[in-house]
Structure prediction request, 199 residues.
Amino acid sequence: MSEIQNKLQIEKNIRKSRVGVWFKNILRPSLEANKNSCINFEIGCGHGHWLTSYAQENPSQNFVGIDLITKRIEKASSKVVKRKLSNVCFCKADANEFLEFCDINLSNIYIMYPDPWPKKRHFKRRLIQLPFLDQLAQKTQLGGKLYFMTDHVDYFDWSCSMISESIHWNFTEEKWPHQERSYFQNILPTNKFFCALRS
Ligand SMILES: C[S@@+](CC[C@H](N)C(=O)[O-])C[C@H]1O[C@@H](n2cnc3c(N)ncnc32)[C@H](O)[C@@H]1O
Prediction:
C-alpha cells in the first residue's frame, strides 16, 4: 500500500469509528427513551430545515438526518436543541458508511436534491446506484418507502431506471409526505419526485 493509500485508509477508519460511537452514545439511548426502534432517515439533510420541521409535526416517530458536511450537521443539531426536540438527531456521515453500521430498521427514507454529478465521467459518484439500493433495502423494513426528489431531470431518469432494475423496490403512487420546503427546494422549486416501496 502506498503512503497516500495508507493515509486514506486511516482517515476512513477514523470516520467509521466516529459513526460507530454515534450509534452507541447518541442514537441507541434516544431510541430506548422513545420506545420505538424504527427510524425515518434523511440522506443529505443539509442544515436539517426540512427534517426538524417534519419531526416536530410527528412527535411519536424517530428521525435521523445525515450529511457529509460538519457545519451543516452542527446547524441542524442546534435547531434540535432550540426547539427542544427529543425525536430527531443528526450525524455527520457518508450514506454508505452509515448503512454499514446501521443495525436499526429504517421505516422511510428521504433524499431531496442529491448532488446530481451531471458530467458523464462523474456518474459513478451518484448516490443512487444498484448496489446502494440493495444495501438500503437490507436495512429497510418491508413496506418502507424511499422518497426521492430532484430538480435535475437527467438524474431523475437515471434514478427511475435504477429503481426499475432493482429487485427490492417498486414504484408506488404517494404524495410527498411533508409540505415544508427544504433549503434547495426554496431555491429550485421545479422538481420531480417518486416514491418506491420496499417489497
Ligand atoms: C444539494 S444539497 C441538498 C440539501 C438538502 N437535502 C436540501 O434539499 O436542501 C446535497 C447534500 O447532500 C450531502 N451529501 C452528498 N453526498 C452525500 C453522502 N454520500 N452521504 C451523506 N450526505 C451526502 C451534501 O453534503 C449536501 O449537503
